[in-house]
Amino acid sequence: MSTPAARTARRVEPDRSPLLGVPRRLVSLLWLPIVLFLLFWSPAQQVSPTWLYAGLVPAVAGWVVFALHRTMPPVATVLTSVALAGGGIALLAGSDGWTTSAAFPMMAVFVAALRLPYRTALFVDVPVIAATTVVVGPYTSLWDALLVVAALTAMVLFGIGRRDSARRVEEHERTLVADARAREEHARAEAIADRARVARDVHDVLAHSLSALAVQLQGARLLALRDGAAPDTVAQIERAQRLASDGITEARRAVRALREGPVPVDVAEELRELGRAHPDATVEVADGLRLGAREGETVLRTAQEALSNARKHAPGAPVTVHLRRDGDGAELEVVDVAGAPPPPGDGEGSGLAGMAERAALVGAELQTGPTPDGWRVRLRLPARSTDRERITT
Asked: What residues have CB less than 8 Å from 264, skipping those under 6 apart?
């Protein structure tokens, strides 16, 4: 793929005329019929038939090639200038003095000065100026010869000026591209630094707090066993201890994702692990389904939030988790029976907002709402989710 800097580097001259606001190639082509009209229909433009047809073909061909091709190799540019100059000098040789035919050698020196390096342009333009000056003669005074040389030299300077102007525009655009790239790199570096800071905060606060909670729950379980607490009490403490351990694992995964970005995960195994942590959940995953790292993470977080909501609002209700193909994409569906939507207020329902935000980041479609006998969460991943970095489930 070509970058803006590369596209700028290939540009040789501005694409539009600053005066007329139309493409320069159109302006160049419009001058050709004007020159030809004056050449054929003006009484003062008398060119002998032999010189007319010998010079007209290469001159017109060179003009058309210059107008239609914005960039050419140096050899092609030299040939174009030679064709213009040769044809124009032939037309001048068959006419009387300085006539409209001089437009062709003037265009030749302009093309060479515009599109060739300085030394090469000098090698082409000096012979063309000399030959044109000789063919236009004889002169009645030295000033007439100097005027011919001055007119051709002015075209050379005009071409050099155009090329220098285009080069300045090119350098300015390259500077803008470099500045934009530097700003983008700076913003990316700031984002990475912010993510690292958040990762440190999560690790120092959340992970440490959960680790301390897990230790305390372990002590509580041992005390309950020592004091002969009821089996239900011990089971609740053990379940809380498992939840704390799961929270530590999730916190460490979040820290790693913040520091390193999304990493491929085994979606099928992770979903089954979530199902094992939810006694009333049934998990079904299509065989051979492939998801990218971001999409797999979105599926896991959506399923985790949906199961947490089901456990909170419909404890004991059966829950089914399906991850299946949907055309060229994939679909996650979590349905619980006798469930209810999260009640509004006091921060409840923010999990649904978080799921929607995750879905939007990967271009997925999230649908949540009640069913006749429960609550359903459906996440539909687009087909392009299988075209990124892949993992096998």
From this structure: 293, 296, 389, 390, 391
